[in-house]
Amino acid sequence: MAKFGISIFLHSFNHRLTHLVVREFWDEYFWLPQNTSWSDMTNTNNISYPQVADLRYTVIFGFALLIVRILLESFAFLPLGWIAGFISSPLLPRIWKHVSGGFAGKSKFKKVAECAWRLSFYVCAWTAGLMILMEEPQLKDISECWRGWPHHNITIAVWWYYILEASFYWASFVGTLFIDVRRADFSRMLLHHAMTILLLYLSWSINMVRYGVLVLFTHDAADILLETAKIARYANWQTTPNVVFLIFLAVWSATRLIYYPFWLLPSFWQSFWFDVPNMSQSSYRLTNFWHHPLVPRVILVMLLSLLVLHVFWTYVILKIAKSVTNGGVDDVREESDIREAEKDKDE
User: What is the average pLDDT score of the chain?
Assistant: First the structure.
């Protein structure tokens, strides 16, 4: 009986402790502006808010995107690679091996298939982002990200865009771990995917979605050109890779080294320094860590960390651009894998 009583006590204690931790974690003090509660973030007839519970769909859709990726690689990219001459072995056994978990080994075609998958998603995501932003006020005036925050309406299109972007990064995180060819920047890519997922989750939870859409749209533009340049390089085209790579460098610099650090980040900083006190909470000071909400400060730190990754990758890109020009490297993320890349052959 004593053991049974202790077991009941421990179960009750753990339940209460868990409830307390969850309640404290979701305290409005950490998340929302003054005089705003979670009950204010419930949907009404006039406005739809992002719901934290909806984030569960990102995991479900993430695994769905993994399945879509495997099917596309098996029944679209593999046949195209076989027609283009990337694959010399019989096609049907390769398709079966890929769809049943073989994932095409580490051949050059596997890298092409990875690029084709990411390119397909980025083109769709960037196009959708452009169409959405054409209907949103923050494209012309970044301060609209903060005017009236957090009481911004989330349209159905924005809901799907944000959820699917987060789902894609879940799929990318799992794919990097178990499917993709292991590259030199494996740990940095995992960090990037995890950081992006957390940023999307945090911004969704406090309805910083307008700002998040701008950040996603800005990042997808350069990724389209990067994947295109890599595919052209793998295909051994002579002029196209260099031309696309130069355009990629221009877009990368414009979006990630100019617009992001000199427009998007200052908008966040200045808005929480000036605009939010004027619009939402007069007592709020970003540098006073006792002033709530606290989560925007976490988001700012993560956005600055993302900028550090941008600078690092720019250094890598510029360093390897010379090797690419000389025909030494096929992928801007494979500097330490040059010898292995030279040995990659189709089975």
Answer: 82
> In whole angstroms, how large is the CA radius of gyration of the chain?
23
pLDDT band at 337 (very low <50, low <70, confident <90, very high): very low
Query: What's the pTM?
Result: 0.85
Please tell me which of 96-100, 136-140, 232-236, 273-277 the model is most confident about, judged by mean pLDDT.
Answer: 136-140
Per the domain annotation, does 37 fall within a domain?
no
Rank 56-65, 280-289, 319-328 by mean pLDDT and report only the highest: 56-65
The mean-pLDDT minimum among 65-69, 256-260, 268-272 falls in 268-272
In a domain, 39, yes or no: no
For residue 293, whether the previous peptide bond is cis, meaning omega lies within 30 degrees of 0, is yes
| 1 pLDDT more than 80 | no
Residue 339's pLDDT band, with cuts at 50, 70 and 90, is very low
Amino acid at 306: L
Number of domains in the chain: 1
Where in the sequence is the domain holding 179, given as residue range(s)? 51-343
Secondary structure of the chain as H, E, C letters: CHHHHHHHHHHHHHHHHHHHHHHHHCCHHHHCCCCCCHHHHCCCCCCCCCCHHHHHHHHHHHHHHHHHHHHHHHHHHHHHHHHHCCCCCCHHHHHHHHHHHHCCCCCHHHHHHHHHHHHHHHHHHHHHHHHHHCCCHHHCCHHHHCCCCCCCCCCHHHHHHHHHHHHHHHHHHHHHHHCCCCCCCHHHHHHHHHHHHHHHHHHHHCCCHHHHHHHHHHHHHHHHHHHHHHHHHHCCCCCHHHHHHHHHHHHHHHHHHHHHHHHHHHHHHHHHHHHHHHHCCCCCCCCCCCCCCCHHHHHHHHHHHHHHHHHHHHHHHHHHHHHHHCCCCCCCCCHHHHHHHHHCCCC
Instruction: Classify residue 27: in a domain, yes or no.
Output: no
253 within some domain = yes
